[in-house]
């Protein structure tokens, strides 16, 4: 390419593979010039791929799939080049947990919800990072598991992941489902408690993927270089001895090639400490990726048709390339 490959991402700790590949010169080692574009929201990421201001992006599968179907006003030919991580999403609620630990399913979970809701004094307002998100699907499944109807019992708001901290502080929301490290940070600041998340709702679910539009996917040399660089980054990330360094680097300001993340919370999400929802990075090509449950839920919500379900399942159930 005659210009740098523009890669979109958000201020999340599971952006680590791409951050590391860029900052440590791994992309450059394989002949790629890259530019990281830190976007304020997932809507900006999707629009960047649609209108060709981005050449690639870290995304969760539901948004990438819906974008590829033209739900952002134009139908780009998107492709998941690689799956990067699974899990890591937290369901957090502000206030005091009426139980010890995460909530059980069934009647005991519903009883905990009612006790908690009484302390809120209103119909709870819960946030997700985008309507077409893994987080929305995880939150819906969590609520259903304790007998809570998302449409009737709560209100849903959409906000970028980092904004949940200030929203909990000022009481404009009562919790939500958010990616790492922001749910963990809210708990460390005693703004919220962990009620559930990826591990309890849908263990080992695909979370972040490296998604490319047609213009990038058709260049096999570029795609191979991306995969090789990310593979090297994954090896570094999976080494527990490197996690403190990774957390420190991600906590650096944007102008110092970091993401300005809270360091302690980021480290906990990398290690899975203190019952924190851990972000798992792909280990090898033998791991199987599956988006069928997402597509089933998306069809049940009326987002996609059966024909679209079949098309997306074939296109998105790609091998995990690491």
UniProtKB/TrEMBL annotation:
GO cellular component terms attached to this protein's record: periplasmic space
GO molecular function: ATP binding
Record keywords, A-Z: ATP-binding, Nucleotide-binding, Signal
Cellular compartments annotated: Periplasm
Family listed: Belongs to the bacterial solute-binding protein SsuA/TauA family.
Name listed for the protein in its UniProt record: NitT/TauT family transport system ATP-binding protein
Species, as recorded: Acetobacter lovaniensis
């Amino acid at each position: 390419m005659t210009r740098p490959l523009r890669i979109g991402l958000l201020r999340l700790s599971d952006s680590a593979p791409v951050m590391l590949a860029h900052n440590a010169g791994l992309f450059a080692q394989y002949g790629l010039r890259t530019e990281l574009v830190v976007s304020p929201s997932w809507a900006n990421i999707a629009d960047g791929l649609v209108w060709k201001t981005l050449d690639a992006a870290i995304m969760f599968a539901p948004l990438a799939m819906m974008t590829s179907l033209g739900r952002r006003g134009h139908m780009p030919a998107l492709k998941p080049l690689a799956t990067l991580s699974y899990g890591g999403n937290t369901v957090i609620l502000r206030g005091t947990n009426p139980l010890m630990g995460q909530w059980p399913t069934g009647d005991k979970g519903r009883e905990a919800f009612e006790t908690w809701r009484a302390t809120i004094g209103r119909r709870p307002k819960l946030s997700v990072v985008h309507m077409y998100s893994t987080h929305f699907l995880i939150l819906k499944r969590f609520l259903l598991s304790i007998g809570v109807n998302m449409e009737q019992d709560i209100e849903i708001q959409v906000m970028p992941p980092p904004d949940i901290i200030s929203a909990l502080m000022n009481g404009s929301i009562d919790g939500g489902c958010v990616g790492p490290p922001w749910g963990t940070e809210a708990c460390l600041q005693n703004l919220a408690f962990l009620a559930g998340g990826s591990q309890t709702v849908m263990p080992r679910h695909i979370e972040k993927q490296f998604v490319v539009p047609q213009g990038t996917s058709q260049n096999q040399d570029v795609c191979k270089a991306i995969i090789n660089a990310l593979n090297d980054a994954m090896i570094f990330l999976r080494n527990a001895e490197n996690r403190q360094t990774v957390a420190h680097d991600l906590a650096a300001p944007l102008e110092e090639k970091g993401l300005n993340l809270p360091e302690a919370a980021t480290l906990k999400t990398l290690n899975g400490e203190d019952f924190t929802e851990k972000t798992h990075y792909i280990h090898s090509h033998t791991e199987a990726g599956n988006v069928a449950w997402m597509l089933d839920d998306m069809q049940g919500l009326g987002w996609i048709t059966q024909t679209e379900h079949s098309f997306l399942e074939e296109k998105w159930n790609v091998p995990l390339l690491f």
